[in-house]
């Protein structure tokens, strides 16, 4: 994993998206981090020092992993640049395959049974209708 400054990270992220436009994926994770061990954080708390948390951003395409640390004062600028990159590369997304709409449930004319299910309890709240079904 390579730890880069925020601007080179964004450039490398752009090239990662461009390499994977036809086929492939890019995973980006964000995590709050202080880059200190737990014992160091506990010592800082005990002495009253404030812990500066940063945002650890990681990106991988399965072959190459890059990361950067973003401080709180650079967060707004980084987020705007990151959003621009995401918007520019959204065209490579596949459209979601939608399933056909389900046919309405048919009630047999002989009884009130609905394909093996019998409504046991019906609760009606203004816009919410809950039906508990029991399998026969």
Automatic annotation (TrEMBL):
According to its UniProt entry, the protein's GO biological process terms are: SRP-dependent cotranslational protein targeting to membrane
MF terms per GO, please?
Answer: 7S RNA binding; endoplasmic reticulum signal peptide binding
Q: Which GO terms describe its cellular component?
A: signal recognition particle, endoplasmic reticulum targeting
Query: Which keywords accompany this UniProt record?
Result: Cytoplasm, Ribonucleoprotein, RNA-binding, Signal recognition particle
- Principal cellular location given in the protein's record: cytoplasm
UniProt keyword Cytoplasm, yes or no: yes
What this protein is reported to do is described as: Component of the signal recognition particle (SRP) complex, a ribonucleoprotein complex that mediates the cotranslational targeting of secretory and membrane proteins to the endoplasmic reticulum (ER). SRP9 together with SRP14 and the Alu portion of the SRP RNA, constitutes the elongation arrest domain of SRP. The complex of SRP9 and SRP14 is required for SRP RNA binding.
Query: Which protein family is named in the record?
Result: Belongs to the SRP14 family.
Subunit info? Answer: Heterodimer with SRP9; binds RNA as heterodimer. Component of a signal recognition particle (SRP) complex that consists of a 7SL RNA molecule of 300 nucleotides and six protein subunits: SRP72, SRP68, SRP54, SRP19, SRP14 and SRP9.
The record's PANTHER family line, in alphabetical order, gives:
SIGNAL RECOGNITION PARTICLE 14 KD PROTEIN (PTHR12013)
User: What is this protein's record name?
Assistant: Signal recognition particle 14 kDa protein
Q: Which organism is it from?
A: Protea cynaroides
């Amino acid at each position: 994993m390579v730890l880069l400054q925020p601007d080179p990270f964004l450039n490398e992220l752009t090239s990662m998206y461009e390499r994977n436009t036809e086929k492939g994926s890019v995973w980006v994770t964000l995590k709050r981090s202080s880059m200190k061990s737990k014992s160091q954080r506990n010592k800082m708390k005990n002495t009253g020092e404030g812990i500066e948390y940063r945002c650890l951003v990681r990106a991988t395409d399965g072959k190459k992993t890059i990361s950067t640390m973003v401080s709180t004062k650079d967060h707004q600028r980084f987020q705007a640049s990151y959003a621009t990159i995401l918007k520019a590369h959204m065209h490579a997304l596949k459209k979601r395959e939608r399933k056909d709409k389900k046919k309405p449930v048919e009630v047999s004319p002989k009884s009130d049974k609905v394909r093996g299910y019998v409504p046991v309890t019906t609760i009606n709240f203004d816009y919410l209708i809950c039906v508990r079904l029991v399998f026969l």
